[in-house]
Specification:
Helix content: 40-55%
CATH superfamily of the domain at 187-300: Nitrogenase molybdenum iron protein domain
Strand content: 5-15%
Number of strands: 8
Shape: globular
Order of helices and strands: HEHEHEHEHHHEHEHEHEH
Structural class: alpha/beta
Largest sheet: 4 strands, parallel
CATH class of the domain at 187-300: Alpha Beta
Number of helices: 11
Distance between the termini: 80 Å
Strand order of the largest sheet: 2-1-3-4
């Protein structure tokens, strides 16, 4: 009888989903991919929302307080995290998924800030580090390994399933990585120059050979002045930028004005820091990344002033 009760209790514990919190939607999707039915994931910053200006609420503190694991990007991305964790009273593990990621080299011929080019200082609220490491698929594979290890430590009874799910997910990530390199390499190097809303694609630039001229710095808290816009238009013409891309977390009107003034084309919308709503075009990390690649390739494959 006792053994029966113990077996029932063990089965009940095994069937329970582990409540976890992820700091933003991209990371939440990765945790769901690895954890599957064994996790219940809540994303603090939801779809189409801007993590740079996120303002936590008491409800968010309660979510963290009731979690067994908290997953964060790190590299200074979540500037609001420390005070939120303190307010929640959470004492459990905080898993920094960017562990082991190398930051990309800053090279003027590959990754140039539009503001830096106008001799204006770029204001980086994240400090010296670029936190957008998931924009290189090789880094995403490292994220998955860290997520897997943390989940296995919390749920060792599911280690085989978690290992298998992580392996399958990493295989899909690596396959997309190879396809991305092939697609972008097919575009002439001199055409791989684009304008984006903010400085979120440094890792993408270093990994795949596209030059990004971001309108804003690593965060999204400020917009360029009228004088800066004039200088940026001059930079677009000087550097023969192929296309301008808006983002789902940014107001597109400034970039649309720059496109009109410069003669450059609007190449479409990119997704840097947030997924879209469930059931839409970029509602998972891999769908988001593949859509970005398609948008960029199509945008730079046609001459900017045609």
């Amino acid at each position: 009888m006792l053994m029966t009760l113990l077996c029932v209790a063990a089965q009940s514990l095994s069937a329970q989903s582990l409540p976890v919190v992820a700091s933003f939607s991209v990371l939440a999707d990765m945790v769901r991919e690895v954890g599957g039915p064994h996790v219940e994931v809540f994303s603090l910053v939801g779809p189409n929302a801007d993590s740079h200006v996120f303002d936590p609420t008491p409800a968010d503190a309660k979510r963290i307080a009731s979690a067994k694991l908290v997953f964060v990007n790190g590299l200074g991305f979540e500037g609001w995290l420390d005070r939120l964790v303190k307010a929640s009273g959470y004492r459990g593990p905080i898993v920094v998924v960017s562990k082991g990621v190398s930051t990309p080299p800053e090279r003027a011929d590959e990754h140039v800030s539009a503001r830096a080019a106008t001799h204006k200082p770029v204001q980086h609220t994240h400090g010296a580090l670029d936190p957008h490491a998931w924009q290189n698929l090789a880094n995403a594979a490292l994220y998955v390994q860290t997520i897997r290890d943390a989940l296995i430590a919390a749920m060792p009874m599911h280690s085989a399933q978690l290992n298998q799910r992580a392996t399958d997910y990493i295989n899909r990530i690596q396959s997309l990585d190879q396809a991305t390199k092939v697609r972008i390499a097919a575009v002439a190097a001199e055409r791989r120059r684009v304008i984006t809303s903010h400085d979120a694609f440094g890792y993408f630039a270093a990994a795949y050979g596209v030059t990004f001229y971001p309108l804003q710095g690593l965060a999204t808290a400020s917009e360029p002045s009228a004088a800066e816009i004039v200088r940026i238009v001059d930079q677009i013409k000087k550097n023969k930028v192929s296309a301008i891309f808006t983002e789902n977390i940014s107001d597109p009107r400034v970039l649309e004005r720059i496109a009109q003034d410069s003669g450059a084309k609007v190449g479409g919308r990119l997704y840097a820091d947030a997924l879209t709503e469930p059931g839409t075009a970029a509602d998972t990390y891999l769908k988001m990344f593949e859509r970005n690649v398609t948008t960029i390739v199509e945008g730079i494959s046609v001459k900017a002033h045609e």
